[in-house]
Amino acid sequence: VHPNVSQGCQGGCATCSDYNGCLSCKPRLFFVLERIGMKQIGVCLSSCPSGYYGTRYPDINKCAKCKADCDTCFTRNFCTKCKSGFYLYSGKCLEKCPDGLEANNHTMECTSIVHCEASEWSPWSPCTKKGKTCGFKRGNEVRVREIVQHPSARGNPCPATSESRKCIVQRKRCQKEGKGKKNREEKRKKSDKDENKETRQESKGRAARRQNRDQRENNNKMQPKKRKAPNKEQDLSPVDTAH
Model's pTM, two decimal places? Predict the structure, then answer.
């Protein structure tokens, strides 16, 4: 063993030196060179840092550097995240997305252009004018539809979601709610009045009958009682009988 190589290393190193740090790593750890000023120090990590990808060999596992425009990568030719100012597309970092694609500034990726989609039109509404469906001849009717897919930045914009057109209806008079209510109130009052009138008439009739009965009774009391005619047989005196 070289005099500068130590066997009692720390931090996952299998072999190391005081000047260069780790020279080899323990199993399953990745060896990577980190630059400190003008010199590079070897370190052993469980996974490769940002900007590197891991490669495994029978004798050593190493971290290799990604391309300059790539922040993280799976291999040198397949990037998984791009650095600022680049858009990811099929493992590559591009400054401008291909035709038919658009740049997504949130994910920093090239994505498909999404166009707006709307549902089918609803049936036409009843013909109205100023919120009413009667009392006029010409009015308007409308129909609506909903947006089921909103567009992306470069997608086709959404169409109108409502339409209106002129319409003609058969003229008819409106039955005002207030007038109908007033008629119902008048009918109710009339019914109550008639009922009260019948009740008063019945009361008057009973009062008149009672008054007539009382008058008859008073007349009967004021008339003198008739004396009964004497019985001829009983009125005969003894003298007449003897004669």
Answer: 0.48
